[in-house]
Structure to design on (756 residues):
């Protein structure tokens, strides 16, 4: 007899959204906030005079003032605005060793950080420290570093443009270009891959394009959970009869059907709208092969019926098509089928739907980017659009779905490890110092340098670096070896507990809170997924009187570390308009910054590809060939593990233990498997299995989970992050963009016997 544990595993038959979403919102409010406060707060989310939702980077029509309901946005807001507190009494009661035994959910659920804290090794506890003392010590250790390039500065994408810019100037004046960003784990293949093909590292569509498109291709994203406000446009398009073609190994409920909580008819009649017109369960890691198949089919159709491809656009606007077509013609259908997991007929069918549409938007998320071929995948998706001229015209274009609400903005205002001579010249002209010439570290190289002892200091502007990264063991060892670690955060997380010699937790104001400087309420600015920049104004009384804003804390650290700084830190922090005036000097695209953010909705940064201006070396859009088909030619037939977000989590923040739409309740220790794969391996629904990374030399990476039969493509398995990060080797990354491969890890799976 095998033991099976199916507790909390049950089918969920409802559509995404609907009453389930309203109920979950009510529960989130009841658990975190006093009921009176919440409705008013939620009504201020994404309104012209309110704050930008800290949930995701999906844009809003800010000029309108209708409230857009969003369950997971509500969770993000109430989680920040919680009534719970983690103050000095909390830390006095718990040693770091004890807190390490807590779950990620329990750590953050303890509440908002209220005081600056310093780790005391003698008692193994965090103790309160004054702001001045913390800044003085941090400044002292920073000044004492002989190798300034051994200081690492990490940014998580919730930080505003103002905070990110000050952080980037501080680090560069100090002497380090080490600006790792959560974008290195997220959309780096977009930032690196897109400029090579269309001359810009950002998407090309705006919200209005969704009103005009006649086909949407959705690849590797789960909007009902991660970009819920996107469900509005998807729902509208579906109702307009726009076909929506989905490529995703899992059948995600929100891509199947959705009931709009703002639609009285759907809510009243318990009906819903189908979202995907065609759903294709591509194999994990099979996207490049699938794109090649669709494009091969298009080439074949065009040979039979010229005009399927947009030859005029290709001739006038692109470069490299003949070689690209020759590669498609030389690729066999058998290989395409084997690697994509889709049949030739299915791929032909997609090509047929695509060939009939004239204004096509292709949207994508982590399912496409977090691969060892992430940049290639993004480029293949773009090539598909280019073949029929679907970039740079109304209703068409490429739409990467960014993660954190300001991750795109961080990068625009200087959070990059790369050397940019134009930016460096402007910094020199503006401030009178030149940033160091040595290129910095991205996220993976940051962890490598910390782990080898080359880097000794880590300053984190938000986030949970050590837990978001692959290879928790190595991250733990790296964190424990540091001389100084500084965390600017709203909540307690596990990175705080991986203590080195000297550690500070500095509590920050959140996006929802009033930020008063020089007696005046300040606004910060953020850039959404569609390059719209707008203001965000917090409204709530801060969680504690000791909190400081991110810009103020960065200024405090900078003043202590750089006594002869050329930057007027205190003056800048008194009025954030002054910070924006400087951003405009370094990045001229922000001209008239302060005037333009005062208009409802803000302004859009320039996107040359939308005008069919291609900022590539050839001056044209490029067709770049992806050699071969498989992202993992060494282990093509191994099962491929993908790591996923549940419906109740925000990255490493675990709001709760349910994943409603996937039918998992009260637990996260599951491995989603295809029923045929289970049968082949003799594994039963609910049985405990051991998963090993199958990469050479990585066999020590293992994890035990409960296998459950799920509607997932054959050859693919799925587990939750961050629990499964132990199975992700740090060195398994995309050589072009440096992103860790979180989504397609070759694994072996075996049963764990009941006696074991
Ligand atoms: N509520 C909430 N909102 C969030 C976040 C959150 O954690 N919670 N995180 C934010 C951040 S930082 C980000 S980056 C975004 C992430 O948003 P998504 O990109 O939606 O993130 P994932 O949950 O990683 O899921 C990706 C989807 O890709 C599919 N997939 C997995 N492997 C493959 C593959 O090989 N090929 C294809 N085609 N599909 C695949 C999965 O089945 C899943 O549906 O969301 C942001 N918004
Ligand atoms: N296996 C696997 N690993 C992954 C992924 C995956 O799909 N699979 N996804 C990757 C992706 S896309 C990303 S973006 C990274 C996420 O990496 P990070 O951005 O580093 O992690 P988060 O979990 O978003 O950070 C949570 C912490 O942010 C802090 N915080 C919240 N709001 C604020 C604020 O306003 N200011 C400040 N200063 N702090 C704040 C809180 O203290 C909280 O503990 O994870 C990556 N890791
Ligand atoms: Mo992300």
């Amino acid at each position: 007899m095998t033991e099976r544990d199916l507790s909390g595993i049950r089918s969920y038959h409802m559509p995404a959204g609907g009453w389930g979403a309203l109920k979950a919102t009510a529960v989130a409010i009841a658990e975190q906030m006093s009921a009176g406060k919440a409705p008013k707060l939620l009504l201020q989310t994404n309104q012209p005079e309110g704050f930008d939702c800290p949930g995701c980077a999906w844009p809003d029509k800010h000029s309108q003032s209708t409230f857009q309901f969003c369950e997971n946005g509500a969770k993000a807001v109430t989680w920040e605005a919680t009534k719970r507190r983690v103050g000095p009494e909390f830390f006095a009661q718990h040693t770091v060793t004890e807190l390490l035994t807590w779950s990620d959910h329990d750590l953050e659920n303890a509440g908002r950080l209220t005081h600056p804290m310093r780790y005391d090794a003698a008692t193994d506890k965090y103790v309160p420290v004054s702001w001045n003392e913390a800044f003085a010590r941090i400044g002292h250790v920073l000044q004492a570093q002989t190798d300034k390039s051994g200081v690492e500065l990490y940014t998580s994408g919730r930080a505003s443009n103002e905070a990110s810019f000050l952080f980037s100037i501080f680090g560069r004046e100090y002497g380090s270009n080490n600006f790792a960003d959560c974008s290195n784990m997220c959309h780096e293949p977009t930032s690196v891959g897109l400029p090579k093909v269309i001359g810009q590292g950002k998407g090309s569509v705006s919200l209005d394009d969704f009103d005009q498109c006649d086909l949407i291709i959705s690849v590797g994203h789960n909007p009902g959970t991660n970009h819920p406000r996107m469900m509005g446009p998807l729902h509208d398009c579906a109702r307009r009869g726009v076909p929506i073609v989905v490529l995703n190994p899992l059948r995600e409920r929100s891509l199947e059907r959705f009931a709009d909580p703002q639609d009285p008819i759907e809510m009243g009649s318990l009906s819903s709208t189908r979202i995907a017109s065609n759903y294709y369960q591509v194999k994990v890691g099979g996207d490049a092969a699938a794109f090649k198949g669709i494009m091969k089919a298009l080439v074949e159709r065009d040979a039979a019926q010229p005009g399927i491809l947009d030859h005029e656009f290709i001739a006038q606007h692109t470069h490299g098509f003949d070689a690209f077509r020759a590669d498609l013609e030389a690729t066999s259908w058998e290989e395409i089928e084997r690697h994509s997991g889709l049949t030739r007929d299915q791929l032909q069918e997609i090509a047929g739907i695509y060939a009939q549409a004239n204004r096509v938007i292709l949207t994508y998320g982590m399912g496409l980017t977090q691969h060892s071929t992430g940049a290639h995948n993004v480029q293949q998706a773009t090539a598909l659009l280019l073949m029929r001229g679907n970039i740079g015209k109304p209703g068409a274009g490429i739409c990467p779905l960014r993660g954190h609400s300001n991750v795109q903005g961080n990068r625009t205002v200087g959070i990059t490890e790369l050397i940019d001579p134009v930016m460096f010249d402007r910094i020199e002209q503006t401030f009178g110092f030149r940033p160091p010439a040595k290129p910095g570290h991205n996220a993976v190289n940051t962890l490598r340098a910390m782990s080898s002892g080359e880097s000794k200091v880590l300053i984190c502007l938000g986030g949970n670096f050590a837990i978001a990264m692959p290879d928790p063991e190595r991250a733990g060892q790296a964190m424990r070896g540091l001389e100084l670690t500084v965390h600017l955060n709203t909540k307690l997380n596990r990175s705080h507990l991986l203590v080195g010699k000297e550690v500070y937790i500095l509590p920050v104001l959140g996006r929802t809170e009033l930020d008063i400087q020089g007696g005046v309420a300040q606004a910060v600015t953020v850039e959404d997924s569609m390059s719209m920049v707008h203001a965000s104004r917090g409204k709530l009384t801060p969680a504690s009187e000791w909190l400081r804003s991110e810009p103020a804390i960065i200024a405090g650290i900078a003043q202590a570390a750089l006594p002869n700084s050329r930057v007027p830190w205190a003056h800048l922090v008194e009025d954030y308009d002054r910070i924006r005036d400087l951003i405009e000097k370094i990045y001229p695209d922000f001209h008239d910054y302060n005037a333009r953010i005062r208009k409802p909705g803000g302004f859009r940064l320039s996107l040359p590809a939308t005008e069919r201006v291609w900022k590539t070396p050839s001056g044209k859009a490029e067709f770049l060939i992806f050699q071969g088909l498989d992202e993992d030619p060494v282990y093509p037939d191994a099962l491929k593990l993908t790591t996923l977000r549940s419906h109740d989590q925000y990255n490493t923040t675990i709001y709760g233990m349910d994943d409603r739409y996937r039918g998992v309740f009260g637990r996260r220790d599951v491995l989603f498997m295809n029923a045929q794969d289970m049968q082949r391996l003799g594994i039963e629904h609910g049985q405990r299995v051991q998963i090993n990374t199958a990469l050479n030399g990585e066999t020590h990476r293992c994890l035990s989970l409960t296998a459950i039969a799920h509607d997932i493509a054959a050859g693919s398995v799925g587990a939750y992050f961050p629990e499964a990060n132990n199975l992700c080797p740090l060195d398994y990354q995309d050589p072009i963009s440096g992103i860790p491969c979180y989504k397609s890890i070759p694994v072996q799976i075996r049963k764990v016997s009941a006696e074991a």
Summary: Residues 108, 156, 158, 182, 185-186, 366, 370, 403-404, 461-465, 468, 488-491, 493, 508, 510-511, 550, 643, 651-653, 721, 724-725, 728, 742 surround MGD (ligand 2) (CB under 6 Å). DSSP finds 31 helices and 32 strands in the chain. The longest helix spans residues 287-304. Residues 12 and 662 are 7 Å apart (CA to CA).
